[in-house]
Amino acid sequence: MSDKKIVLIGYSGHGLVVAETAKTSAMNLQFYTEKEAMHINPFQLDYLGFEGDHTFSSWDEPFDYILGIGDNHIRAKVANLIRHKGKNLLSVIHSSAHISEHVSIGQGTFIAKQSVVNVLARIGDHCILNTGCIVEHECKIANGVHVAPGAILLGNVTVGEQTFIGANTVVKENITIGKHVIIGAGSVVLRDIPDHSKVAGNPARTI
């Protein structure tokens, strides 16, 4: 693991979970960025300003970066900015996550506590695999996907970029879900879902 100091982009909501995971994983997390300094700062991080401002000077420092942004679109935009600046984007993985040795995980991805990623799964860049989710064997998760807490993707599911899979959703094996899809919490997905769809229910239907 690098000894470089680490900056967290986004320090509220989901970002607090990422911060706690980074700290408990002995990552050298020291700083955060937000549009303004946070009154709630449980991990005593130093405020650097907002990464989107033209006055943000920390790009010149030898820092690595992690993502604390829950929104898929904004997270992808910030990930691209970090790469454009030539900086390292690190993944954060909780020590209690169960991850096969035979998987691939992209840059800037967050894998939360008690998550499971099984053999030959492929996880893209800047994804979120949230608390207790299960990604079964041979699943293919594109960049920027968020799998919410408790969701289950059975074997050989394919998920397109920046799709959101709601909490406690179950996706049947061999299903293909398109890009920029939103699946409501508790859904049961039994058929393929095209790009840009919004679905919910048991079985999941367009809403």
What is this structure's SSE topology?
Layout: E1 6-9, H1 14-24, E2 29-33, E3 46-47, E4 64-67, H2 72-84, E5 92-93, E6 98-99, E7 104-105, E8 110-111, E9 116-117, E10 122-123, E11 128-129, E12 134-135, E13 140-141, E14 146-147, E15 152-153, E16 158-159, E17 164-165, E18 170-171, E19 176-177, E20 182-183, E21 188-189, E22 198-200, E23 205-206
Question: How does this structure look, described?
Answer:
The chain is an alpha/beta fold and 207 residues long. The protein folds into two domains: 6-90, Rossmann fold, CATH 3.40.50; 92-201, UDP N-Acetylglucosamine Acyltransferase, domain 1 (3 Solenoid), CATH 2.160.10. It is 12% helix and 26% strand. It contains two helices and 23 strands. The strands form four sheets. The chain has an eight-stranded mixed sheet with strand order 5-8-11-14-17-20-22-23, covered by helices on one side. Helix 1 links the parallel strand 1 and strand 2. The radius of gyration is 17 Å and the shape is globular. The mean pLDDT is 97.
Q: Roughly what fraction of the amino acids lie in strands?
A: 25-35%
Number of domains: 2
Task: Write out the strand line-up for the largest beta sheet, numbering strands in chain order.
Answer: 5-8-11-14-17-20-22-23
On the 0-100 scale, what is the average pLDDT? 97
The CATH topology of the largest domain comes to UDP N-Acetylglucosamine Acyltransferase, domain 1
DSSP summary: helix tally: 2
Give the name of the CATH architecture of the largest domain. Answer: 3 Solenoid
Cα Rg: 17 Å
The string of secondary-structure elements, in order, is EHEEEHEEEEEEEEEEEEEEEEEEE
Uncertain runs with pLDDT below 50, 5 residues or more?
none
CATH superfamily of the largest domain: Hexapeptide repeat proteins
Through-space gap between termini: 45 Å
